[in-house]
Each structure stands twice: as C-alpha cells, then as structure tokens.
C-alpha cells in the first residue's frame, strides 16, 4: 500500500539521506544520538553534584548556585531530553514501522520536522549554560514563586530559555506523537491485528497517547510562567516581598502550577516506563525462548496503567497541603496502580520460569531491570501513603525511590534494547565482553549508589541541600556513606564510556550479525535486508499470520516461528496449526 | 478505525493505487482527530486553570469587549464557507471552489484582526495583561486560540496551493476537507472559550471548585 508512497521521499543526495531525511530509521538514529549526547551531559552534571555531596567544599568551582544548576539541569535533561526522546523518538521511530510491517511512518515529513524541532529544543537548553547568570537552578520541577524570583540562579535568562526549550520540545513531541499513534492505527500490514502487535509497540503506543494528553499541561504551565516572568502577570505569582521590595505580582496561585506540572509530571513517569515495560517483555521472551506469559493481560495492564497514571498526580503534592479526602483519593489510586504493575512483574517472572534462558547482554539488562524496578516500586508503595510520605518526602529516600524506579530501570532497558537491536540497525553485533562488563558495573553500581540513599533518607537527611553543616541529627558516618556513593557514581559514569566505545568500535569491527542473530519471531527481524533499506520490505509487504511470541512451538521446524512465515512453511507436519500455535500463547 | 485492516485485507498490500489513496486518506483524517484531541486537552486545562483561579476571593471580572461578538460571527461565516468549499471540492467540476476558499481565508484574517482590535481597545482602557488575573487569562485564552487560527490559515494557504496545482486530485480535496474540519474545531473551541468568558461568574467557579 505504501509502495507508491515511498518514492516520494526517496533519499537522493547525502543531504536528504543523512540530514534532511524522512526515513524513520535515519530519524530514529538521529534522535538516539542526540539524546545520548545530552545524556552524557546529564551524567557529567550528576557526577559534579556527587563531588560536592561526597567531598563538600573540596571543589571550589562548585558553589551553591552551580550545585542547584547542576541538580536542575540533570533532572530535566534525563527525564525529558534523554529518556522521553530516546524511547519515543528513538525506539518508537525505529521499531514501530518495522514491527507492524509498514514502509515508514504515515507522515514522513512531519517526522523529520519532529527531529529537527527536538534538536532546536536541545540547543536552546544548551544555550542556557552560556547566558549571563547561567541555567536555571530552580529544581527540575521549576516551582514558582522561587523559580522566577531574584536569588534563584538563572533567574535572568536561564529560566526563560528553559521554558522556551520545553515549549519547543513539546511541539516536537506532538509532531512525533501524531505520527506514532496514526501509524499504529492505520499502517499495520495485513494480518497485523492490534492483538498481534509486539508489546514494545503497545508500550510505545500507549506512552505516546499519554504524552499527547499530558504534555499540553506542561505547555500551558510553561507559557503561563513565561508570561509571569516576562510580562509581570500573576498566574502563579502571589503577592511577594522579595529582598525588601514588594513585587508587582499579586494574587497568583503557586499551587495551580503544581497541579498543572504534576498532571504532566506523573504521566511522564509512565511515558518513560511503558515503552520500557514493552521492550523488556520482548527481550525476555526472545532470550528465554518462550512465549510471553499472558500476552492479553500484558496489553490490558499497559492500557490500565496508562489510564490510571492520569489520576494520581497529586501524590507528588501531599506536602503542599490538601483536603484529607483528596489525599485519600490520590493515595488509593496510586496504590491501585500496583495491581496492573504487579501483573506485569508476575508475567515476566512466569515467562522466565522454566524458560530456555540465554544470559545474553540484552537478557542481563532485562533481568536487571526487573530487579531494580521491583525494589523501586516497593518503596513507591511506602511513599504513596500520605502519612508515610510526609516525613520522607523531602529526604534522600525519595531520591533513592525515583532513581531506582524511573531513572535506572528505564535506562537499563535502553541499554538492553540497544544491545538487542544494534545488530538490526548496523548489521553488526556489539562486543559481548564489553557489554557484560558494562552491565555488571552499571547494575551493581546502581545498588551501591541508591541502596544507601534509602538509609540516608530514613535517617532524615534532606534532599536538595548543597551542604550539611551543623545538622546535629545527621551522624558523621552519613558523610562517609556519601563519599562512598560519590566514588561509585564516578566509576559507573566512567563505565558508560566503555558502552560508547563499544557502540563506535562495533560499527566497524563488530562481528557480522546476519539478519536474525537472536532468532526472534517478530517482524523487524524478517526484513529482506539488514540493515533494512529505504521502504523496509522490498517489493511486497509481509503478511502476518500469528503473534510475535511463537517460541518453542511444538511441531515447528525450528524453535521459533516468524510472524510472517506462512503456516505451511513453518511446520514439518501438517495438522491443526492454528491450534498448536495458539496453545503456546497462554 | 477498523476499516484500515479491512482495506488491506481486500488485497492492497502490493501497493495498488486505491490502497495508497485509502490509507493516506485514513491516516490524514486520523492524524487530525489525534491533533484535535491534543488541542482539546490544552484548552480544557486552560479552562480548568481559569475556573480554579476565578474561585479565589479576589477575582475582578473583565467586561468582554463587544468586538468579540462580531468576531464570533466572522468565524462562523468562515466555517460555513470552508464547509461549502469541502462540499464543492468533492464534485467532478468544482465551480466556485476558489471563491469559497478565499472567503474562508478572509474570514480567518478578519477574525484575527478583530481580536487584535479588541486587545487594542482593552489596552487603551488600561486593561493590560498584567493588570489583574482576569485580564491575564483573557489575553492568554484569546491569544492561544489566535495562534491556532494562524496555524489553520497556514494549512489553508497550503490547501489553496494544492487546489491550484492539482485541481480535482484526491490530496487537494482531502486538504480542503481537513481544513474545513479543523476550522469547525477552532470554532467549537472559540464558542466554548467565549461562553466561558461571558457566563462563568466567580460564584459558579466557587461552586465548581467546592469553595464556600
């Protein structure tokens, strides 16, 4: 059906092939490389922060202002410009058309625009490091009134550039999101019913819908805060006396900002988590040579989590003060999310149970994800309760919780996904030894960094502080722990260089992968060319006969049956094929 | 949404021209639905913010300038003209298509000019954006709606180009039809915003928010 469409944006020159390219695969790579580049900045910022926390005052250039700027930019970069962009723009772009058997996204030009607008957002963000006053140091949540009051670092230009960059980013995400949703709905190949799509596509699909519904809230709050900052309106700014002077603002509601921000902010957690859930399901199924346990439940769990994530936002605001009934409602919805999430965890474990486990690098990262996600999720149950959250909310317990559950866990999946699909993207395998080294340092390092933070939090050590002088209740040993955390954080940061080296080195020297090195059943591994060429599928589109998880099927010629293998070719013995394939789906 | 797989099942996987048309058309229509959903969320959130802010005790209402009534009429006219254009475009001989598109475009421009006029009058009366929250919200709501009208005009200009370059082609017809649909959506949004500006009082807002 798209055979006629593809010549429309056939790349003809270097420029249209690698720069102004409308091919989803090139755009995916552009998105990923840009996201990884800003991610490196994010890692460096976190290490600078840790230097101050581990060895306070030892590094003169990290003063209080710089510290807050590092904290803010680290958070914003990691959550928005790295994870969101990488999962939706990178994985979404590359995998959706290949996994559903399309030639490209349905709006290729818009797709290209999405990337370049994203890049513009990144440049605006980076520019804030170089303006007078530097980037904003308001914390990644940018709470007013302090975000735009004198005394907060970056109040001159940094906050303006931050808000503008976010607005641009949201335009880019919306352009991309329109594409992903419409492509999934309208460009699936023959036989690719919704309930035959790989869970990766389901995760990205629902996450994209969440992004489309949630990002407008951030856009609205960014515009309103920009007006407060530039035109002296009072959307969020109450009457304030700042540095002895009464400001013009009057009657704004800082709490309104918090509601808008978290109406975006909580779904954002799942915008990052749902693609990770999907990808992990696929990695586990392929590398355990077993059909994913409870495919339908997995799909409905993704949908349910997506729906629930829109009605839990105020659990980020317990300490802001609210009607007790309100708190009760949000605590209840928050805890209910644990149900579909637990279904997913059980199904991953039951897929692994008695599977033919291959501890490849992608599989290690997938299993690592289950571990960190369960730990981070459990502390989420603590924090979801109002009475437990209030004493813990401003401590390192929260830092530990969200880094385990939405920082490290999705990043482990990003790594797993990259190790898994790199052979399809480049035609070569990533180096296995380097990959295992990368995994173990990152995984063990994660626990070494964040486990102690739970303890520090329970001790009452406040988060967001630049220095901890003269707090009688914090024992001296906490400082030793902080120093240890810093050392590990730097080591883990350095280990990421090994990964980057592996990415570059394997591109030229890696072992040739062949078309389907993991013997996977889903459609992206069945392309006629590796790496797939423009148009993906050669002369005819694939026809899909089954779900994406036909592994170890009784009676089949090999231990997996590709989605597009006609029933006759896939089985040695004729018989009721539908029945036998169906039998492995439960 | 079910029609897409059905169309493909009908044998268009090899890239027959009919298959391409149907899918491109469905994709464009679906894309616009998704976009209108996103924009609906955007304006709904703004209205929530508006009502929440109004429910606080110190709200000083802003008298809506009379120009807005006129602008509403102009926007309705534009919507009718574009609907007419979309209907004509489907005919084998689309007589009067250019005139309808032109009227639609002129209505859009007139609406924007009318909104700017209203802004100018308010400014002249010292009702500036920062004067009080009601003013800030007025400028924000009308301004954001105006930005989306500008976007619609850009799309319409693109539609006119297509109609001139490929008269009678599917993509021209589709573009005109989608422009009309987007215009209806902008009209609906405007009617809701205008209604909110006119009729939501602090008392209603307090009732909605449960504030006594």
Task: Throw out a few tags for this protein.
heterodimer, A: 586 residues, mainly alpha, two-stranded antiparallel sheet, 2 strands, globular, disordered N terminus, B: 212 residues, Four Helix Bundle (Hemerythrin (Met), subunit A), 7 helices, 79% helix
Given helix and strand content, the structural type of chain B is: mainly alpha
The figure for the number of domains of chain B is 1
What is the CA-CA span between the terminal residues of chain A? 33 Å
C-alpha geometry of chain A: globular
In percent, how helical is the residue content of chain A?
55-70%
Biggest sheet overview of chain B: none
Strand order of the largest sheet of chain A: 1-2
- At the fourth level of CATH, the homologous superfamily of chain B is Cytochrome c oxidase, subunit III, four-helix bundle
The largest interface is: A-B, 49 and 42 residues
The helix count of chain B comes to 7
How much of the polypeptide of chain B forms β-strand, as a percent range? under 5%
- CATH topology tier name of chain B: Four Helix Bundle (Hemerythrin (Met), subunit A)
State the share of residues found in helices of chain B, binned by percent.
Answer: over 70%
Oligomeric nature of the chains: heterodimer
Compute the CA-based radius of gyration of chain B: 21 Å
Can you summarize this structure?
The complex is a heterodimer of chains A (586) and B (212). Chain A contains 17 helices and 2 strands.
